[in-house]
Amino acid sequence: MTISNNEEIIVLEEDGIRKAICGYTWPGIEFGEPPSCPYTFFEYVDAIRFGDLPAFLQIESACQAWWHPTLDRGAGALLHFAVDHGQLGMVKFLVEHRGVPINQRCNNSTGWTPLHRCAHVAHYRNAPHMKVFDYLLACGGGSSAENGEGWEEGAVRSQLSTLMEKHRNVETKPEYTYAGLSTGPEAEKVLRTWEALPKLYPPKNWRPPPPAGYTQARGMRKHSVEPWRPAGEDDGSCMLRPMTALELEAQARRC
Question: If 0-12 CB within 10 Å is exposed, 13-18 middle and 19+ buried, where does residue 69 land?
């Protein structure tokens, strides 16, 4: 059965088995497990924090429906994290190749822009924060840090002020604050569609957990050598289900 809306296929099923929702699939979809992304948001952010561009591009390609550069879940967007860790190369990449707003305000009580976050950590010598600060100003990071809140006293403050003066005539770019969803709109559509569908707990091919005192004490030991895994981890069912082909491949790589 296939559920469609006009020409768009919403739920794709084959032989009664759920295969995709809104064109998106994931491990366990046929068993009713919720939509999931191949990489977590933390892995997406960490690739930026650690300056690992190949890893970031790989995650970005796999998770375009879920994460995007301006997504802010309350701790800042990608540019904030790149600035925090002095990743000048990643800062330039985000600004020049992903077009992120240079003056995006953090979606929390501070409301700091990347420039202000940079000024706040500029006294650390383990990363080129002064070069990052200089670059942000050159790109129109402008007046967002002029009040000096959070700046270290002394020589660092003086250097920051000198850089501010150097770029005084650069036009300040508009400010921006993210006010969207906690995932990308495509992923949100998949999540809402999945929530509206009938739940599949428990499918016919799930096993109940072996009872205590299982014959010859084989119980869970028998299940442990077969390709099964706990199912419905959050529903308290303690059921077991067969592993999918993707899960078996992942297990083979790990083992």
Answer: buried
Instruction: Determine the Cα–Cα distance for residues 118 and 110; give it in Å rounded to an integer.
Output: 14
Which tokens hold the place of 178? 């993210």
- Residue partners of 2: CB distance under 8 A and separation at least 6: 9, 11, 12, 13
Radius of gyration of the CA atoms of the chain, in A:
25
Regions of the chain short of the pLDDT cut 70: 1-9, 143-154, 201-239, 255
* CA atoms of 125 and 226, how far apart (whole Å): 53
Give DSSP secondary structure letters for the chain.
-EEEETTEEEEEEETTEEEEETTB--TTGGGTPPP--SS-HHHHHHHHHTT-HHHHHHHHHH-TTT--TT--SSS--HHHHHHHTT-HHHHHHHHHHS---TEEEPSSSS---HHHHHHHHTT-SSS-HHHHHHHHHHTT-GGGGTT-TTPPSSHHHHHHHHHHHHTTTSPPPPEEE--S-SS-HHHHHHHHHHHHSPP-PSPTT-BPPPPTT-GGG-HHHHHHTTTEEE--TTTT---EEEPPHHHHHHHHHH-
| pTM attached to this predicted model | 0.74
Written as one letter, the residue type at 143 is S
Tallying the residues shown for the chain, one arrives at 255
